[in-house]
Amino acid sequence: MDKIPEEQKRNVCFAGDLIDRGPGSRQVVQYVIDNGFDCVRGNHEQMMIDWSGHYTDMLWLGNGGQECLNSYKETDDNEYLKGPIDKELFEKHRKWMGNLPVYLEYKGVLTPDGRHLIVSICHNQYKHLESDDEHKKTSAVNQIMWGRVFHSIKDAGFFNVIGHTPDERNPQIKTIYANIDTGAFIGYGGWTKYKKGGLGYLTALHVPTMTIYKQECIDK
Asked: Checking phi first, is residue 45 left (phi over 0); if not, alpha (psi -120 to 50) or beta?
């Protein structure tokens, strides 16, 4: 945020996946809440929302949830699931996540070629979100949060900024979408062995200038 010019901080939107794998998930969520930033719901937020509360339920815990839970602990003990968590704050954040939209549309923010901006975790099936068919609507929500097949994205007349899938080639700025997930968590802890190319950074994209801001992971 310090690297972004003040005049570009008027409308900040986070592309989801605020949590997991790093040491400060709780702090990141609280930062977004305290500053009133826009944010869409990512699949990692969805896994936290859906978590049963049982430590045998590993869908979330095995995908960074254990590190996220540690950030809610009331002690500085860094061992896995040792010490009580702040359950009140945890549930408050989980409720906030449940109210996040799966995508946000900014019709007044245009790319140089006139496409308006949509921010989501992944681009897919927007037309079904307004469907009367509940199955199609549910499927569309799941695809937006979990889909990774970017080569099949079709031109729908807008510009979609997405996260969700770290790739050493990112950020990829295409005509109809930009994938800006550069795997910030890969710059932390045991993940650094996977650090290569453009990975291990947090990336922001300013629309309409298409300026890219990158910050290497500073967590130790």
From this structure: alpha
Strand segments, DSSP code E, in 35-191 are 38-39, 103-110, 116-120, 158-162, 172-173, 177-179
7 backbone φψ class: left, alpha, beta (φ>0; ψ -120 to 50): alpha
Contact present, 182 and 164 (Cβ < 8 Å): no
The reported pLDDT for the residue numbered 123 is 61
**How far is Cα of residue 158 from the mean position of the Cα atoms in its chain?**
20
- Closest Cα partner for 164 from 70, 26, 40, 11? 40
> What is d(CA 84, CA 183) in angstroms, rounded to the nearest whole number?
29
Backbone angles phi, psi at 173, to 5 degrees: -105, 105
Count CB-CB contacts under 10 A for residue 1: 12
The least confident of 87-91, 112-116, 119-123, 207-211 is 119-123
Q: Is the dihedral of CA 66, 213, 120, 97 positive or negative?
A: positive
pLDDT digits (tens, 9 = 90+) for 121-170: 766 567 777 788 898 888 888 888 888 777 777 788 899 999 888 989 89
pLDDT in tens, 62-89: 999 999 999 998 655 555 555 788 999 9
Q: Where are the alpha helices (DSSP H) in the chain?
A: 25-35, 43-50, 58-60, 66-71, 87-98, 134-146
